[in-house]
Amino acid sequence: MRLKDLGEFNFINRISKAIRLSNRVVKGIGDDAAVLKYTKDKYLLFTTDMLLEGKHFYKGSSARLVGKKALSSNISDIAAMGGIPKFAVISIGFPGSLDLKYADEIYRGIRKVADRFSVDLVGGDTVGSNKIIINIALIGEVEIKNLTLRSKAKEKDAIFVTGNIGGSIKLKHLNFTPRLEEARFLVKNFKINSMIDISDGLLADLGHILEESDKGAVIYEKTMPVSKDAIDFNSAMRDGEDFELIFTLPEKHADRLEDIWPFETRLSRIGQIRDIHKGFFLARKNGKLEKIKPSGFTHF
Ligand code: ADP
Ligand code: MG
Prior knowledge:
CATH 3.30.1330.10; Phosphoribosyl-aminoimidazole Synthetase, Chain A, domain 2; 2 domains; 6-stranded mixed sheet; globular; binds adenosine-5'-diphosphate; binds magnesium ion
């Protein structure tokens, strides 16, 4: 059997099943970051993300934006846990023939994001490689009471998404701001039951919440914030790397959230969590309900 016959998620499941964890691990594989015991009132968060030339960016891509994306995608995962990013290590594979200016620009991009979100860059590793590879591992913290998992969505929760969905391939996938301030506002002011950031596509990532929470959902075509860069509604729902947040909270708090939302970032109420036996449905603008599958991007 080859990896692509198994699929990315089955492969990760297989890794997960073979690992035995100590009781210091609150959540290992299966969320946006690992959750580890730390102090009386805080957990440590730990996440990593890798960017590969030819896959996540191309030879002509702006080096500064490549650096920006490398750290921002990790911060997005810490944000999705309700936490605050703290310390990063950066491992790079660079071809020896690479223009020094390009390498410097990548680091300038990383440093700018680190400064903006108060992340200390504390180490890494450097190897020669035919193609550019950048891997960042990031540690963060979250107050125990503010931790937001994929697995705690409740029936009747309102489902929200930040920003616009789809078409990120045009530029946004390289040039986005992780929704850290928004996430911190949410966890400090509301009981957020579940949260995830969009890397695989809205349907797939909402699908991760539903699967981990054993729930179904209905989502509304009418209020979906489709980006003008998206080809159409259906592709917007499946396009990866939006780096927006999907979250759920009890419906009785949804109006207050919409009232006091203080950011320019768009906020859209896009659906409702249902009992798992009710399935996963899309309510079309014409009122019809369509059964949908949480499909999106996978690496193989
Ligand atoms: P995200 O898109 O939020 O970064 P991924 O889809 O990359 O999440 O990963 C999902 C989960 O699987 C995470 O908990 C991640 O730590 C874990 N994971 C991914 N690849 C591996 C691997 N090679 N070994 C162990 N865990 C992995
Ligand atoms: Mg994520």
